[in-house]
Every structure is written in C-alpha cells, then in structure tokens.
Amino acid sequence: MNRILILSLLSVAAAGCATAPKPLRGEFAAVAPEQSALSGQVGGTVRWGGRIISVDPSEQQTCFEIVARELSSGARPVQAVDHSLGRFIACRSGFYDPAIFTNERDVTITGRIVDFETRRIGEYDYRYPRLAAEVIYLWPLRVAQERIYFSDPYWPGYYGGWGYRAPVIVRPVPKSEPTPPPSK
C-alpha cells in the first residue's frame, strides 16, 4: 500500500514540474534588464522574455523592442499587467515577419548583452540593454478557456456518491471581434 502511495505521489510531483523548451535551456546570468541598464555590464549571457512592443526588420537583421516580464519555471513570460522588469532590445540576423511577431505575442530570448541604446518613451530618455540574440522563441497565443459545469442526475457524484463533482466541459472562449466605430 505504501509503495503505491509513494509511486502515485512521485508521478504527480513529476507531472507538476515544468522544464524549459530545449533551445532555452542552459546557464544564464541572473540579472533583469532594468538592473543591466543601471549597472552597464556588457558581455553576460542572459535569458529574458516578455511582450513584444515593436519589430523593426532591416536588410541584415530584425530588432525587437520588448517589455520584460518574469519567467516561469518553463521559461515562458508570466502574464502580468501591472509589473515589468524593464525593457530591452534584441537583434538577430534574418527576417522575422512583423505580421507574426505582433505586440500581443510573448517571446523568450537568449543572447549576449552587447551594448546599450537610449531611446525616447514619450518625453523620457530610456536606456535599453541591447542583446545579440541567439534564440528567439515565440510562444503560442494563450487561449482563454471557459469551464461549463452541468448537473446530471445519472452521474454518480450527483447524489454525493463516489465523491465526484459533475463533469466539466472546457472550451476556448471565442475572441470578440472589434466593433466598428459608429458612422456619423
């Protein structure tokens, strides 16, 4: 009995562990973009992620401006609307389509800090760390889900038997289309 309990607990614990995708694994400096901009240290290899602000493709490379977010144990940026770890710029050779890499997408980037660049945000001069990106990992869009509980008198848990709840249907919530402005 104890062996079965231990094995089931181990399988649950193993299922709960999240690992980063293979291209995002490795040893990285534990510094956030805002700390890097203040310290001015160049040359460290980092793994940063966040939400894309803009994409600027040129002949040789594509540069991304990103609002940094905390990363989960699986290296995916955590959804946070009221907190950021600063901003950074990541450039990589080749063309990355701005129609795919839009401002609602999350990315995780590994690379080396090569220098710093000052750009204006409104009236503020902001100092961005600039990465020579090695990996640009575009995460799939998060799909909101809706849980529908229903009651079925023939379900064993309906009358309190077996300790189960009613079955659950999980389905994606459709994105609402933007409504056009009223015509005048």
Summarize the structure in words.
There is one protein chain. The chain has 184 residues and is mainly β. The chain has 2 domains: 19-138, OB fold (Dihydrolipoamide Acetyltransferase, E2P) (Beta Barrel); 143-174, no CATH class. Helix content is 12%, strand content 38%. The strands form 2 sheets. It has a 5-stranded mixed barrel with strand order 1-2-3-5-4. It has a two-stranded antiparallel ribbon with strand order 6-7. Strand 4 (106-121) and strand 5 form a beta hairpin. It is globular. The N and C termini lie far apart (74 Å). Mean pLDDT is 78; it is low at 5-16.
What descriptive keywords fit this protein?
184 residues; mainly beta; OB fold (Dihydrolipoamide Acetyltransferase, E2P); 2 domains; five-stranded mixed barrel; two-stranded antiparallel ribbon; 12% helix; globular
Note the total helix count.
2
Strand-residue proportion:
35-45%
CATH class identity of the largest domain: Mainly Beta
Q: What is the total number of structural domains?
A: 2
Tally the beta strands: 7
Class of secondary structure makeup: mainly beta
